[in-house]
UniProtKB/TrEMBL annotation:
Organism lineage: Bacteria, Pseudomonadati, Verrucomicrobiota, Verrucomicrobiia, Verrucomicrobiales
Compositional bias of kind Polar residues: 257-267
Gene3D superfamilies reported for this sequence: NAD(P)-binding Rossmann-like Domain
Family: Belongs to the short-chain dehydrogenases/reductases (SDR) family.
Region Disordered: start-end pairs: 248-267
Pfam families named among the record's database cross-references: adh_short_C2
Organism: Phragmitibacter flavus
Protein name: SDR family oxidoreductase
SUPFAM superfamilies linked to this entry: NAD(P)-binding Rossmann-fold domains
């Protein structure tokens, strides 16, 4: 098992990509702290994984004390901390005209500052175990959709944080920091968002090739499979790296002339 006896905090892991990462981590021998805002879904996942393998902490990450609460809960439950996965994110569509400063600050607070705060809180324990940090970003970090302005900026800032700390913490603490940028992923929340936008329940079954050359978009389990490499010792001393996980080159592609009927990806 690639994560035998490792303890990992995974934010935003009651659903979606975070849930898939938690399931895969336990399958690889780890113990995980599940986090999110949905106590029923979180408890259901803990029950699935088993109380010896998982614990649950429900709290809004914008609470100033939340990062320390997460670390304390993991240490109390499992005795040490080997890694954190900053996966929790706020995904809301908005552009220059529809974004005000309060909303922009909220997006940065959740998507960029909360990961920074958790890294600071966890660092003493990660230093002790020579552990690692995995940030979950987005391909939109490179520029982003017009209607995902603050979201894209927040993920771009997270990417810079990863590269900066990936150098600093490796030199000073022997703690690795890396990031994966998923493309368009079929999570439960994404499926529901598109239904809320008026699309059919099976909207993802027939997508234009410009967005899904393979005929489908990514699954959370595929992101989780990639995450294990960065959380495991087999990635060695590699730090400060950002890897895009998409089925096509995201930058420089030519969209179709008529995009009016295409549901825009959120990630």
């Amino acid at each position: 098992m690639r994560l035998q006896n490792k303890t990992i905090i995974i934010t935003g892991s009651c659903t979606g990509i975070g849930k898939a990462i938690a399931q895969r981590c336990v399958a690889e021998g780890a113990q995980v702290l599940i986090h999110g805002l949905e106590p029923d879904l979180g408890q259901s996942l803990v029950n699935e994984l088993g109380p010896n393998n998982a614990a649950l902490h429900i709290e809004d990450l914008t609470n100033p004390d939340a990062p320390q609460h997460l670390v304390d809960t993991a240490i109390t439950a499992f005795g040490k901390l080997d890694a954190i996965v900053n996966n929790a994110a706020m995904v809301v569509a908005s552009n220059l005209q529809t974004t005000d400063l309060d909303f922009f600050r909220k997006m940065l607070e959740v998507n960029t500052l909360a990961p920074f705060a958790l890294i600071k809180a966890a660092l003493p324990h990660l230093t002790a175990t020579k552990g690692n940090i995995l940030n979950i970003g987005s391909v939109n970090a490179w520029s982003g959709e017009p209607n995902l302005l603050p979201y894209s900026v927040s993920k771009g800032a997270l990417m810079t944080l990863t590269r900066n700390l990936g150098d600093t913490l490796m030199r000073e603490n022997h703690v690795r920091v890396n990031q994966i940028n998923p493309g368009w992923v079929l999570t439960e929340n994404e499926a529901q968002r598109k239904r809320d936008h008026g699309l059919a329940d099976n909207w993802y079954a027939d997508l234009p090739a410009v967005y899904a050359p393979s005929g489908r978009i990514l699954w959370p389990q595929e992101i989780a499979a990639a995450a294990i490499y960065w959380l495991a010792d087999e990635s060695g001393p590699i730090s400060g790296q950002v890897v895009d996980l998409e089925q096509h080159p995201f930058i420089g592609r030519n969209p179709p002339k008529d995009t009016s009927t295409i549901p825009a990806p959120p990630n």
